[in-house]
Specification:
The protein is an alpha/beta fold. The chain is 32% helix and 19% strand. It is built from 10 helices and 16 strands. Strands 11-13-12-14-15-16 form a 6-stranded mixed beta sheet, covered by helices on one side. α2 packs antiparallel against α6. It starts with 13 loop residues before the first strand and ends with a strand. The N terminus is likely disordered. InterPro entries: NRX_PDI_b, Thioredoxin-like_fold, Thioredoxin-like_sf, Thioredoxin_domain, TryX_NRX_thioredoxin_dom. It catalyses: [protein]-dithiol + NAD(+) = [protein]-disulfide + NADH + H(+); [protein]-dithiol + NADP(+) = [protein]-disulfide + NADPH + H(+). One of its GO terms (biological process) is negative regulation of protein ubiquitination.
């Protein structure tokens, strides 16, 4: 078995993150987007870059450390092998080459998965009818082959065979899957376009924005509010449901969001903040109530749900300079949090 005592010496380059967070450890949770425990993340300590997000699957699948150092592999290599259609037909994974691919982690026992699948079937049909080269790969988390077969019978796309548990596990490891349903959208080269395929499909029923390249600033909705749990989020609350007000707010913070995203992308790291504009609706009212925010608008906030902390700037006018200073102070740990 793989233990700290018999790890290869090269393992000294790794940092191991485990157990619930306290104080400064919350920053590590946010940095590495940990949403479940226990979690084990392998990091190259010399660069700080993530080697593998699903360390628990690694030590389960490779207890002798034969695949050490468990770095990421290309999608084409991980997925290599036969795939299934629900009529029993098989095809080789190289049939995916040259297409956008949605890697769909889902299971029949999961009600949100079944709801998403119904929407995704229609999205898949619309995208194919529009002449786009697109395929979906179902990676099952079902608890039996019978459940897999029943669920897969509803799907018009391809799947990794249920019996190929090793390949299903490797795909989970590749994308650091922490919950289902998850839809990862890849470009034709196998690189990730978005990990938020679920949100994109639900927000873009007509698939007009396929393949859903990420936007720097999102308008907060019922379907994307789940992203508030993924780490610190800047949320600018505005005082009107009018589209013009929301659009002006997005234009105000977009250059700052783009600057932050580009800075961290250059370091091959995820941005430390997500950016939202929130109008006036029942969901926004619920968020204000839950986080005990004042009714003022415009209201500039950073919400960190995992740390149960908020940072609030209540001023009469929000300018780009105010937003940029607020973000800079947050990233430099100069702001004092208030409890949620």
């Amino acid at each position: 078995m793989l233990t700290p005592q018999n790890l290869p010496l090269r393992a000294a380059k790794f940092t191991f993150l485990l157990s619930p967070p306290h104080l400064l450890q919350l920053k590590l949770w946010n940095k590495y987007r940990v949403s479940n425990i226990p979690s084990l993340i392998f990091i190259d300590a010399s660069t700080g870059k993530v080697v593998c997000r699903n360390g628990l699957l690694v030590i389960r699948d490779d207890p002798e450390g034969l695949e050490f150092p468990w770095g990421p592999k290309p999608f084409s290599e991980v997925v290599a092998g036969p795939l299934l259609r629900n009529n029993g037909q098989t095809l080789d994974s190289n049939a995916l080459e040259g297409s956008h691919v949605g890697v769909y982690f889902s299971a029949h026992w999961c009600p949100p998965c079944r709801s998403l699948t119904r929407v995704l079937v229609e999205s898949y049909r619309k995208i194919k009818e529009a002449g786009q080269k697109f395929e979906i790969l179902f990676v099952s988390a079902d608890r039996s082959e019978d459940s897999f077969k029943q669920y897969f019978s509803e799907m018009p796309w391809v799947a990794v065979p249920y019996a190929d548990e090793a390949r299903r596990s490797r795909l989970n490891r590749l994308y650091g899957i922490q919950g289902i349903p998850t839809l990862i959208v890849l470009d034709s080269k196998g690189d990730v376009i978005t990990r938020q395929g679920r949100v994109e499909v639900l927000n873009d029923i007509e698939c007009r924005e396929f393949p859903w390249h990420p936007k720097p600033v999102l308008e907060l909705t019922d379907s994307n509010a789940v992203q508030l749990n993924e780490g610190p989020c800047l949320v600018l609350f505005v005082d009107s449901e009018d589209d013009g007000e929301s659009e002006a707010a997005k234009q105000l913070i977009q250059p700052i969001a783009e600057k932050i995203i580009a800075k961290y992308k250059a370091k091959e790291e995820e941005a430390p903040l997500l950016f939202f504009v929130a109008g006036e609706d029942d969901m926004t009212d619920s968020l204000r109530d839950y986080t005990n925010l004042p009714e003022a608008a415009p209201l500039l906030t950073i919400l960190d749900m995992s740390a149960r902390a908020k940072y609030v700037m209540d001023v009469e006018e929000i300018t780009p300079e105010i937003v940029e200073a607020f973000v800079s102070d947050f990233l430099a740990d100069k702001l004092k949090p208030e409890p949620i």
